[in-house]
Amino acid sequence: MDRIISNRYAVALFELAKEKELVKSYHEQTGALLVALEESSELDGVLKHPRINADKKLSLVKNIFGNEICDDIYGLIAIMLKKGREDELKNVFLRFDELSDEYERKTCALVESAFPLDNERQEKIRQRLSEKLNKDVELTVRTDPELIGGIRISVAGRIFDGTVKNELNNIKKALI
């Protein structure tokens, strides 16, 4: 149920951003709010505190962010606070982030390798994924020696596993 609620708020804000041709700007603003909520347990705690009224919570957010956040996003926050849905703020901003990335044809990929990948190799992987997905791809690269060799790529809900560890597991399953 909470996911449905978060999605509705996020979609409403996204449609408004599209209508005003401000998707990128709203994306940056909701991203800043999301970072603040994730990194500041104090802010998160105050927003979720049951004895602090919605107006004071909104005033606090406005004091922190000032003119960095537009009236439409403040309006969304105000509505959510007044309806007691402060627990869903993070989820709304996360969903808005997903919608914006889809709209801007962006995606993130996790690339795991047994050994560090140099910048040239990373760029080749990024370009290849961009061509295949027809999106701009942002890479997160991790080194995991347990993979033994090869790479594993997680992108758009799919996993491409070309690691030695995976091949050995496949051989093991075939033999059992």
Write a brief structural summary.
The protein is of the alpha+beta class.
Any descriptors?
four-stranded mixed beta sheet; 176 residues; 2 domains; Glutaredoxin; alpha+beta; Peroxidase, domain 1; 4 strands
What this model shows, in words?
- The protein has eight helices and four strands, in the order H-H-H-H-H-H-E-H-E-E-E-H.
- The protein is an alpha+beta fold and 176 residues long.
- It folds into two domains: 2-102, Peroxidase, domain 1; 106-175, Glutaredoxin (3-Layer(aba) Sandwich), CATH 3.40.30.
- Helix 1 packs across helix 6, helix 2 packs antiparallel against helix 6 (89-103) and helix 4 runs antiparallel to helix 5 (71-82).
- The longest helix is centred in the N-terminal third of the chain and has 18 residues, at 2-19.
What structural class do helix, strand and pairing data support? alpha+beta
Which regions are unreliable across 5 or more consecutive residues at pLDDT < 50? none
**What count of structural domains?**
2
Largest sheet: 4 strands, mixed
Q: What order do the helices and strands follow? A: HHHHHHEHEEEH
Radius of gyration: 21 Å
Distance between the termini: 43 Å
Gross morphology is elongated
Q: Hey, roughly how much beta strand do the residues contain? A: 5-15%
Indicate the CATH class of the largest domain. Mainly Alpha
Q: Please, how many helices?
A: 8
Which CATH architecture of the largest domain?
Orthogonal Bundle
Question: Could you report the average pLDDT, rounded to the nearest whole number?
Answer: 94
> Oligomeric form of this entry?
single chain
